[in-house]
Structure formats: C-alpha cells, structure tokens
Write a structure and sequence with these properties.
The protein has about 210 residues and is mainly α. Helices cover about 60% and strands about 0% of the residues. The chain contains eleven helices and no strands. Helix 2 packs across helix 3, helix 2 packs antiparallel against helix 8 and helix 5 crosses helix 6. The relative contact order is 0.13.
Length: about 210
Amino acid sequence: MKKKELYGRVMEYFQREMPEAETELHYEDPFQLLVAVILSAQCTDRRVNMVTPRLFEDYPTAEAMALATPETIYEYVRSVSYPNSKARHLVEMAKMLLSDYQGSVPDTLEQLIKLPGVGRKTANVVQSVAFGKSAMAVDTHVFRVAHRIGLVPRSCTTPYAVERELVKHIPQALIPRAHHWLILHGRYVCQARRSKCEECGLLGTCRQKL
C-alpha cells in the first residue's frame, strides 16, 4: 500500500469513528490548558483532572499563580508525578508570562518553549488545542500508534522524527484532530501492554498483524 493511500485510509477511518475528538483535559482558557498539560507529563489526564479544579479555583490566572510559592502549589499537585519540579515550573512559568508576555499565553512554538516546564510536546499541544494551529504533539501514544499502523517508518526513532513525518503526510486542516485521534486510539484501543485488536478497524495496516 502506498503511503498516500495508507494515510487516506487511516484519516478516513478516524473521521468516521471519532469525528469530534478533543483533549480530555479540563480547562477554561489557554492558561489553564497550559497548566494542565504541564501537569500531565508522565501522568494521566484523569489524575490531572482530579487536582486542577481546586488549583484553578484558587489560582485561575497567571497573575494569581505568580504570587504563589512552589511550596504552596505543591500541596495542590502532590498526587501527580514529579510534583516538586512541576510546582516550581508552574510558578516560574506564571511569572514569565507576566514579565515577558503581559500575562497571556503565547501562541508560537518559539515563545512557548521558553517557558519553564514547557518542551516541544507541551508547546504543540497548546498551539493545537488552544489556538487551532496545525501542530502535532507526539507523546508515547502517538509514537506507538504511528509506528504500529505504519504511518511512520521504523527509522523514525525520536518523537521529533515522528512529528515531522506525520505533519508531512496528514492534511494540514486535519492535524489538530489527528493528534487526538492517535492519542485516543492509543489510550483506549492500541494500548501498550494489551492491544484491543478486536475493536480496531485498522488491522489491515497494523505491522503487528501483517
């Protein structure tokens, strides 16, 4: 199967099966999304959604969070992974938003990755979800699924390599949704330890089943 045909078949499948795919993180504005995505690193969205309501109630804006201490924020996020470093990053990030961006979350990769606690994946999630940009964030789910169903060659051994390959072949208008399609497929069907192949409509392209 040629690559163009493969991508067309996969995109058609996801459009049919998950037409309204979106992030499972709970947020009300770009700042809250940024906070939630920082907290979600190596942590489940479910856990993040358990801690953010109280955090956002007391610190709903960059202005409010910049006045907090890492020790204070830690008490809100202590049940997520790496709470000490994430609490410190959140306070430092809020302060930088005030000092460099007038309290608003920037919408470019170059600006976002300057913020404490924000790497390329986090920046791409914010660009895509908050601002509708055609950015492809590659987490462990996207990385795994893209390889298993053959969207990227085995030579793509880094998240950045996978990102470049996916962006090159997925229609630009579909990239924001494709990010969620691949994540949700990996989270609920094409799981790392035990894939639910009986529920998958992409077995014909799956390298594990060919």
